Structures are given as C-alpha cells and as structure tokens.
Amino acid sequence: MKQRTHWESRVGFVLAASGSAVGLGNIWKFPYVTGENGGGFFVLVYLICVALVGLPVMIAEILIGRSTQNSPVGAFKSLSGTKSPWLSIGYLGLFSSFIILSFYSVVAGWSMHYTWLSVSGQLADLKPAEAEPIFDQLFQSTRMNLFWHMIFIGLTVGVVFKGISKGVERWSRILMPALFIMMLILLGKAIFMDGFSQAFQFVFGFNALKFSSTGALKALGQAFFSLSLGMGAMLTYGSYLRNQDGIVEASVTISILDTAIALISSLILFPIIFSYGMEPAAGPGLVFISIPIALSQMGSTTIFGTLFFALLVFAALTSAISMLEVSASYLIDEKKWTRVRATVVAGLAAGLFGIPSALSGGNWIFGSGLISLIGKNWFDSLDYLASNWMLPLGGLGIAIFTAWRMNEALRSKGFLSGSNLRIFYKIWLLLLKFLVPIAIVLIFLHAINLI
Ligand code: PHE
Q: Which of 26, 98, 226, 387 has most ligand 1 atoms within 8 Å of CB, for mutation?
C-alpha cells in the first residue's frame, strides 16, 4: 500500500477535523433550525443524537479511513471488493458532499458579503430595524449571490489544490482558537442582555409542545451535518491520520468542541432575538440579522463585525475544504487524476450546480415558484434532502458495515491503536450494531409518519 501524506501531529488532525465539523452548521444553521423547531426539546434530541449516534459513527468513519488509507469509494473497495454493493455508501457520500458544497458556498458567500459590509463601514450606526432589510436585499440579489458564491468556491478550490496538510493545518491552528475567543466575547455581551434568561429558557427548557413529526429527523440530520458525518469527509481526513494517534480521544474532543460552539452560538443569538422582539423562527437569515444588531450595540461594528464575519468565512472554508476533498480524493485515488485537475473540475461542477441555490432568494423558478409548488425553494429542498436523509442514510450504511461486515482484527486494531480508551470498544460496537441502525431507521419511519 502506498504511503499517504499525514497530518503533522494529533493536534493537527483534531484541529483540521474540528475545522471540518465547526462551520456554518454550528453558527448559522443550528440556531435557526433550533428556532424553527421550537427550542429546548429539539436541543435535547440533538444532544442525544450527537452522543449516541454521531460519536459512534464518527469513530467508525475515521477508523475505516485510517485502516484503508483511502477515500470513501476506494476504502469500501479495498474492504469488500470491487463489485460489492457496499461501494454505494462511498458513491452516496460523493453525491452528498457535492450537493452540500453547492448550497453551503452560497451561505459562505453571504458571510463574505457581511465581512465586506463591515470592513467598508456599511454596518456602522446600524439601527435594529435596518438589519433585516439589509439581509433581504442580499438574499434577493441574483448578482451578489452569484458573485460571492463563485468567489467562495474559487477560494475552496485554491486551498484544496495546494494539498491537505500544509495550508489547512497551519491556518487552523491560529484561526480556530481565534474564532472561539471571538464567540466567548460575544457570549459575554449576550449574558448581560435583557433577553438572556428568556433565551436560556428557550434553548434549555425541554418543552416538547412544538416538536413536529419531522423534529427528530431534523435533529438527527443536524447532528450529521454539524459533525460532518455520513458522506466520507471524516473518513477521508481519517485516512491522513497517523497510526500512533488515538481515534476515540480525537472523536470525543471534536464532538464536544462542535457541540459547545453550536450551543454558544445559540446563547449568543437568542438573547439578541428576544431583546429586540424578533422571531426565533426567522429562518436562514437569523445570524446575519442578529449579529450586526448586537455589534452595533457594542459600538464596534466595523472592527468586531469584520473579525466575526471573517472568522465565520474561515470556519466555512475549513468545512468546505473537507467536502471538496471527498470528490477530489476520489478523482485522484480512483481515476488517477492530478490533484490540480481533480480539484478544479470538482469545484467548478459544484459551483455550477450551486447556481440555482444562489438564485433561490430572488429568482421565481428556484424560489417562490418552487415554494408554491412543493413548499420549499431549491436551496431548502437540497438542504432538507441531503442533510436529513442522505447523510443519516450514509451513516446507517457505515454503522452496519463497520459493526457487521468489517474484519474483527482490523476493526479492533484500528480502535485500539494509539488509544487509552480501550474499555469502550465493546460499548462502541454494541451501539454501532444495534442502537445506531435502529435509531436511524425509527427516525426515518417516524418522519414519513409510519410510526
Ligand atoms: N460540519 C460542517 C458545518 O457544520 C458542514 C459539513 C457537513 C462539512 C458535511 C463536511 C461534511 O458547517
């Protein structure tokens, strides 16, 4: 087997994998999905999904990646043969990563636009009532959406073709902690807002009343989305992990960090929402409307706004990189393409496929036309399908494969190598064998109202 390039250290891997996990999913998506699904009970179901479904699947993904030193499709090929039906897990992952990148980059583009609005002083002296029209204007603008979407895809391609360890690892070391500190500063501000106790109650008050039949599905999908699971991103990153580094410790660290950032984001956003009498269910614009308000109250929109949105762009970039890396490493490993050709072609394809998502706010066909037909615009439909169905389906396949099909010697070696948490092996395997598949299937059945 040829040797791959590897992360320079365990910390490097944890940072890069956290870079994949922490992104728009935590700061943009988690609060608004929580808002749309009524708050506390959704958060509770989400936390259960992270601990009992997400974490075991993450360990499995990284383990498969490291054991095979390969990207998703190649990994299943080398474990189960070239014609095996298990390859479809790899192909499904490829497909999901492609779809998610196509709309993810639109939201990352919004973050770039807000970075620009902040630097150029356009958010200074913002009145609370002005925040929403500013977002709506962006949301509906075909030109700006397309422009930023393409710039962001270009940026992602630029980083991925330079190769995985150097660029990503170095920048993550500085910017991930910076983002965390920035969030703590904003949290410090939010705690003293009038709406904080109401927000706390909203996020942690476990009231099941507003939970719909698809609530559990959305919590599960959000857990997969936020932890970057079910499409082979963690598998691919795992393939660059050295043998002496423990997978379990790394996975636990990544999951805790990811969850902490999602919860902190909510505790920053909802106090603003409640203090200014806004709607918790405001949808995808939530972070872009509330953060500028909070910053203008701190009197420093230009500096802090630039910092916050630039770090958000960076967080999105480290996630987008891991999505593009899934298709790129497939083309490199399986089709023997050069890295440059693979990244440019995959990136361009995702960019083109993302155009309808970029147009969803202002274009009749992909926006209101679809909304009146199927109740969701193009962007939301892709998000719903990919995050809530395709990722958990991929996770289901990975869990069943690892628990029921994978060679015991290879599996236990992967789990134990470099780890001090050997005692959890049996528990992990039991979760993966029974609880994870059953939970995913039950949630699927519940979502289509069969149970
Ligand atoms: N986890 C990333 C986020 O929360 C998104 C992502 C999903 C990245 C799937 C890779 C794979 O923003």
A: 226
